[in-house]
Amino acid sequence: MTDRPALSCALAPTADVVAQARLAEQLGYRRVWLTDAPALYGDLWVAMGRIATGTEHIGIGAGVTVPGLRHPMVTASAIASVEELAPGRLIMGLGTGYSALNTLGRKASTWAQTAAYYRQVRALLDGQTVDIDGRACRMMQLPELGARRPIKVPLWLAVSGPKGIATARELAVPGVIWTSTPTEHGDWPDSALLRFGTVLDPGEDHTHPRVLEAAGPGYTAMVVHAAWQHSPTAVDRLPGGTKWREQVEQEQPTERRHTIVHEGHIVRLVDRDRDVATAAGPTLLDIGWTGNAASIRDRFTQAADSGVTEVIYIPAGPDIARELTAFASAASFSA
Length: 335
Fold this sequence. Notes:
Elements: E1 6-11, H1 17-27, E2 31-34, H2 44-54, E3 59-65, H3 72-85, E4 90-94, H4 98-102, H5 111-125, E5 130-132, E6 135-137, E7 155-158, H6 161-171, E8 175-178, E9 190-196, H7 209-230, H8 241-251, H9 271-279, H10 293-305, E10 310-314, H11 320-330
Parallel strand pairs: 1-2, 1-10, 2-3, 3-4, 4-7, 7-8, 8-9, 9-10
Antiparallel strand pairs: 5-6
């Protein structure tokens, strides 16, 4: 029988993140992963440091950091600092930054750039001297001025598509993070699946305001925002999509639209996103893991059969505590 995946959660770095992490710890979540998107939320590493000192044992993950946002030395130093605060509890995930960089008007990093960044950070943590932008770099903190090298924090990779999978294999990463159910088990010991959605109470459906606010951010991020990033007119094929696009175009000129499209990305609905999520109708419930408690448990079993070892739940809406509690209970991980 395939082992059941562990349950973790992903939170946005906000002023409330420590209280949310404490609740997740009480509910039995394995890890708290923190989103890295400086234009959308607070600082990833500040939040991780707060969680490290504000919780007792829950794991902490950077999910995921992005090449191009920080020099590899800055990332390595941040990892070392959090590891000092919470020894053995930290994992760093690295990704291409499709949304995080788009909010800055930039394209995602290439897989070659991502692989190079991964190797540089790993080498720095291992105590090596590495060439970065034509200059030698080494973590040179003396004892009591920084963590002793080597720093054995695991570095995972967020993967998608053949190139991402190939890069993960090339780097021999210890863990991968997926945004959709993997089609192959791969060569890595840990395989985490990001999932959003909400546990429905009896009688609830897509017409209920609570469901809209909790399931809507995942729908708009993964369907509407993703379609717009591919091609702005692609959203016209979605229910309410033309109206949504026209609102974006009215609010900002072409060169500034990236500064508003992702507002609240995956965790909150702004008015134009609320309208397009409402227009989705019952389809709102088909994106992500939205359903009753029994269906959530079934999905854990299906994920395990796909080689998933950890499900990372992304709670959304105004009541994160309710979402964390309901999902843990549905997955039979409640304290």
